From TrEMBL:
The keyword Signal does not apply. Homodimer which binds Holliday junction (HJ) DNA. The HJ becomes 2-fold symmetrical on binding to RuvC with unstacked arms; it has a different conformation from HJ DNA in complex with RuvA. In the full resolvosome a probable DNA-RuvA(4)-RuvB(12)-RuvC(2) complex forms which resolves the HJ. The lineage of its organism: Bacteria, Thermotogati, Deinococcota, Deinococci, Trueperales. This is Crossover junction endodeoxyribonuclease RuvC. It comes from Truepera radiovictrix (strain DSM 17093 / CIP 108686 / LMG 22925 / RQ-24). It catalyses: Endonucleolytic cleavage at a junction such as a reciprocal single-stranded crossover between two homologous DNA duplexes (Holliday junction). SUPFAM superfamilies: Ribonuclease H-like (SSF53098). It is found in: Cytoplasm.
Length: 168
């Protein structure tokens, strides 16, 4: 059975208060192309509310620029790092608000799911994930920031999951 896949634009987002990675990819047929990527940084010396406003504004701009259909977000699993979990949770909150305002479907993938989808093992290293992002998108270099590489990996993971759904 031949199922034609409609074009799809996916933004992957690696959330963080200090460093937030964004990556946009577009799939047309079986071809996947990089639309753009960005690292959003906030200063630890800035007020928390100002940092969150910066994230919200930059994520909203990214969504407006690339007009994605889906946001693929990294699921956060912190056990002993309560302060980090709280700050990342706040960053996720403003990103989810921006996604809602742009009418995006939001899907969440855990780190092991991303590694499994791209590398074939849930225990892959960041270097292996970065290499597969580079290879899959035909980039000359691995993204400089691992946050951006992770964001692109999340977007590619969603496209991989979509392939499996279409096979059903």
């Amino acid at each position: 059975m031949n199922r034609t896949r409609p074009p799809l634009t996916v933004v992957g987002l690696d959330p963080g208060l200090a460093n937030l990675g964004l990556g946009a990819v577009r799939e047309v047929g079986r071809a996947v192309t990089l639309l753009g990527a960005k690292l959003v940084r906030t200063s630890p010396s800035a007020e928390q509310s100002a940092r969150l406003e910066t994230l919200y504004r930059e994520v909203s701009r990214f969504f407006a620029l690339y007009e994605p259909d889906v946001l693929a977000l990294e699921g956060q699993y912190f056990h002993r790092q309560r302060e980090v979990a709280f700050k990342v949770g706040q960053a996720c909150g403003v990103c989810l608000l921006a996604a809602q305002e742009h009418g995006l479907e939001v899907v969440e993938y855990g780190p092991m799911q991303v590694k499994q989808a791209l590398v074939g093992t849930g225990r892959a290293s960041k270097a292996q994930v970065g290499y597969m992002v580079r290879a899959t998108l035909g980039l000359k270099e691995t993204p400089e920031s691992h946050h951006v590489a992770d964001a692109l990996a999340l977007a590619l993971t969603h496209l991989s999951a979509r392939q499996f759904q279409l096979l059903r």
